[in-house]
């Protein structure tokens, strides 16, 4: 739970964007954390995985996805959702 929350907090993602995180026990106090960020129609999906201490794994995974273009996807989704309301 700590890894997943750290991931979402670092992304600064709202509840309307397609973002996912799944943490599993990695042994020895570590987690295996998978995450993704997608656009609304699913044509662009960024995925990655990290292994580490829960808090730092969440931050590292978010930063990896941000470096791959997640911020642009998240901003575009927010604009699309706002335009629809």
Structure overview:
This protein has 85 residues and is an alpha+beta fold. It is 46% helix and 31% strand. It has a 3-stranded antiparallel β-sheet. A hairpin with a 6-residue loop joins strand 2 (30-38) and strand 3. The longest helix is centred in the last third of the chain and has 15 residues, at 70-84.
Strand-helix topology:
Blueprint: H1 2-11, E1 19-27, E2 30-38, E3 45-52, H2 54-67, H3 70-84
Antiparallel strand pairs: 1-2, 2-3
Helix pairs in contact: 1-2
Oligomer: single chain
Q: What gyration radius follows from the Cα positions, in whole Å?
A: 13 Å
Segments where pLDDT lies below 50 for 5+ residues? none
Elements, N to C (H/E):
HEEEHH
- Spatial sequence of strands, sheet with the most strands: 1-2-3
Which descriptor suits the 3D outline? Answer: elongated
Please report the number of helical segments: 3
Major sheet attributes: 3 strands, antiparallel
| Number of E strands | 3
Terminal Cα span = 31 Å
Task: State the helical fraction.
Answer: 40-55%
Structural class: alpha+beta
Q: How much β-strand is present in the residues?
A: 25-35%
Mean pLDDT across the residues is 94
